[in-house]
Each structure stands twice: as structure tokens, then as C-alpha cells.
Amino acid sequence: IFFDDDTFAWKKSRTIEMCEKLRPLNITWSCTCRVHADYETLKAMKEAGCRLLIVGFESGDPTVLKNIKKGVTAEQAREFMRNCRRLGISVHGDFIIGLPGETRETIERTMQFAKDLDCETIQVSIAHSFPGTEFHDYLLDHGYLTPYEMSDECGHQLPNIEYPDLSRREIMEAVERFYGSYYFRPRIAFRIVRKALFDAAERRRLFKEAREYLRLRARRKAFARG
């Protein structure tokens, strides 16, 4: 069961109340969550059957986090992850490349931040803006929005943002490098393989995702090469 509710863990009292109602059902579930959730809230979620949280960390750079008005700090994110590990809750971390203030240096900082957090799995997305949003207005005002498509014919993300010191190709290359530097660490690779060895369903999932990753990797590399 997945609760697709961005506000699930927003208000502590409400979250704990919901968990009290879920606990007697003896079900396993997952949901989206923000790093605002404290240990007590996470503990209530774990005891109610929560096994996985999908968390948008976005960036590990303080300036980028401030620019997007994230309302959290990198240290809060680290404390959140420490609590999750202590409770045995898995975390899927989401990160975004190309947000306001992004540079080659902030990308490197976010990549290291992701490794420090050490989520079970990650997703790295390309920043996109939509008309009517503050981000879209910012890009238009500064001339950073290009006329290129946001996705290819298969629906996979393409960068349509270009900063003075960060090209579209560099953004795409950074996404690929992010994935590679994260998952190809020996410890992470061993963790994934070990899990698949003892779980047939996990082996099938891993095989399917590995094929998809290699296909997307080839596309991203081709784009970055121009």
C-alpha cells in the first residue's frame, strides 16, 4: 500500500493519530515524507507498518535550498536519515539537478550529500519549470529558458534550462554521473546484489531496472556528447 499524500507527515498530531488507526490493521505500507518529521513521528509510522519513505531532498547546497524556499537544511536531512536508520525505515531519496543557483560546484556538493545520506535508492531528476510558477518567471526574466523540449519521444526527461556557466549538456551529463557515482560504489553494489540473492522477486525487479538503467544511460551519454 502506498499513500500518495504529500501532507501525510506534515502535521505531527494528525500523523500520529492516523498511525494509531493503522496499527491494528497489521499492514505494510509506504508514503511520501518530508525531513521535518521527527523521531517520535517516524517511530509511530514504523510501528504502524511503514517500511519505506519517498523523500525529496532536492539538493545538498545551502544556497540552492534557500533559493527554492525548501525550508530545511542539509543537517536536518542528515538527522532525519539517522532516525530512519535507527528505526529500520528504508528511504528512497529524490534529487534535482538544475535548480536556481545551480553550478558545477553545487552539483558536486549534492552528489556528496547524497552519498552521506546513503538512501537505499535514489532518483535524480532534471529541473523543469511550468508557466505560472515562480521558477518559470525567474528563468524567463534571466533568459535561462530554452525553446527545447522537456522530454523525448519516450517521455524521458530532457533539459530545457541553460545557465551562463552550466549548459544543457552538462546538466544531462551530471545526472548520469550522479547515478554512476552513487550506485557503482562497491558497498552499495554489494548491498543490492546481496538482497537479490535471497529474494526471487527482488532479482526480477533488479534485472528489469538494470536493463532500463543501461538503456537510459546510453541515451543520456549520447545527449551529453551532442
Give a written overview of the molecule.
The structure is a single chain. The mean pLDDT is 92. The protein has helices spanning 12-22, 39-47, 62-67, 74-87, 104-117, 134-142, 168-183, 186-197, 200-225, and strands at residues 2-3, 29-33, 50-58, 90-97, 121-126. The protein contains nine helices and five strands; from the N terminus they run βαβαβααβαβαααα. 52% of the residues lie in helices and 13% in strands. A five-stranded parallel beta sheet has the order 1-2-3-4-5. With 226 residues, it is an alpha/beta fold. α2 packs parallel to α4 (74-87). It has a single domain, classed as Transcription Regulator spoIIAA, CATH 3.30.750.
Essential attributes:
single chain, 226 residues, alpha/beta, Transcription Regulator spoIIAA, five-stranded parallel β-sheet, 9 helices, 52% helix, globular
Structure, briefly:
β1, α1 and β2 form a beta-alpha-beta unit. It is globular, with a radius of gyration of 19 Å. The protein contains nine helices and five strands.
Order of strands side by side in the largest beta sheet? Answer: 1-2-3-4-5
Structural class label: alpha/beta
C-alpha geometry: globular
Q: Low-confidence runs (pLDDT<50, min 5 residues)? A: none
